[in-house]
Fold:
Amino acid sequence: MRLIIEPDYDKMSVWAAEYVARRINEAKPTEGQPFKLGLPTGSSPLGMYRHLVKLNKEGKVSFRNVITFNMDEYVGLRESHPESYHSFMWNNFFSHIDIRKENVNILNGNAPDLQAECESYEERIRKAGGIDLFLGGIGPDGHIAFNEPGSSLASRTRQKTLTTDTIIANSRFFEGDINQVPKTALTVGVATVMDAKEVLIMVNGHNKAQALRHAVEEPISQMWTISALQMHPHGIIVCDEAACDLLTHGTYKYFLDIEKNNL
Ligand code: GLP
Structure:
């Protein structure tokens, strides 16, 4: 695993965006051979999306031949609800770049048969040839997508019940009212993310420090689902200083040292 430590949120976001742009450009995607990108929601990736929009407008990266797969979506929230992940993605990213609507994939949390929706999502990813780069954030309890503590590290796309911690954390988007937060979500599984050729996770802020410690220094555990990244051959975490608060001084210095000349 690589751990890239940037001084603050903005620099973390720029690093992640430039990495994504570089990977897309290196792949030289075409209509027949598109680049497949896995995408998260949440506040962690917002800065990265802003910078990717800028790079797109400057002509430094194009999403014309990029197919996207989002990680998750609430169950039972209408697509047009301002806090649905559909709205989040179109408002913060897709509406501002040159992506083709038919290349955007987001789980349908209102599908009549939710299990069939999850199975067909896995099938769509498989048919596309797998994901080249999966981006993500993590919750304070170390969950990736909506794979809450105790989720199987071999899990695939399915419906999950949100923990009280996550409902409280996400209530900030629902007028601080936990009753408005959906209680379940559809989410890709830990194994769905780990199947990607590369995984890049953004972690910022002191409230993620414990999760980052578990991701980097502690054993792999279903109680901290991000720790599965330790088994990935090309896993990268990019974080800010505040998220490093609970890493040992030795770990912190080690990663700063080995990454100082890397892009
Ligand atoms: C939700 C999402 C996750 C996200 C997490 C952290 O639970 N399902 O994908 O990583 O929130 O969100 P934030 O980046 O806002 O801290």
User: Anything to note?
Assistant: Strands lie at 2-6, 35-39, 66-70, 72-74, 104-105, 133-136, 158-161, 184-187, 198-203, 235-240. Helices lie at 9-27, 46-57, 85-92, 114-127, 164-170, 190-194, 209-216, 249-259. The chain has a mean pLDDT of 97.
